[in-house]
Amino acid sequence: MHLYEHTIIARQDISSSQLNQIQEKYTKIVEKFEGSIVKTENWGLLNLSYLIKKNSKGNYIHFKLKGSKKTILELEKNEKIDKNLLRFLTIRVKKFDLETNYFEKNDKRKQDGELN
């Protein structure tokens, strides 16, 4: 099994329940093809650098998963035809960074002394 980080960007106008359905849908696909989700992070609604399909913002969901190449191919095949998604990206990694949450609120990191 290989380790992957997979990020999807959903349209800005979908509801939170639809966002949860998207997350569950792709989790089930990974599990169906003998993969496993190690961690899921919902990064929320973020600005895009440029317009994608007339959207200036997108809902980001980031998965850290274990799986085979077949798992990733099936996942991406389903994402290509999903009308609610704008983009997706899969990167193979050597190990996961499970401690750092890059998109948490800045106030909490300031209190911990990470930012001056």
Task: Explain this structure.
The chain has about 120 residues and is of the alpha+beta class. The protein has one domain (about 1-110): Alpha-Beta Plaits, CATH 3.30.70.60. About 30% of the residues lie in helices and about 40% in strands. The protein has 3 helices and 4 strands. A 4-stranded antiparallel β-sheet has the order 2-3-1-4, covered by helices on one side. β2 and β3 (about 55-65) form a beta hairpin. α1 (about 15-30) runs antiparallel to α2. The longest helix is centred in the N-terminal third of the chain and has 17 residues, at about 15-30. The chain is globular. It starts with a strand and ends in a 5-residue tail after the last helix. The mean pLDDT is about 85.
Q: What is the residue-averaged pLDDT? A: 87
Radius of gyration: 15 Å
* Total helical elements: 3
Biggest sheet character: 4 strands, antiparallel
Q: In order across it, which strands form the biggest sheet?
A: 2-3-1-4
For the record, give the distance between the C-alpha atoms at the N and C termini, rounded to a whole number.
40 Å
Shape-level CATH architecture: 2-Layer Sandwich
**How would you name the CATH homologous superfamily?**
Ribosomal protein S6/Translation elongation factor EF1B
What's this model, at a glance?
This protein has 116 residues and is an alpha+beta fold.
Q: What's the topology here?
A:
Elements: E1 2-10, H1 16-32, E2 36-52, E3 55-67, H2 69-80, E4 85-93, H3 106-111
Antiparallel strand pairs: 1-3, 1-4, 2-3
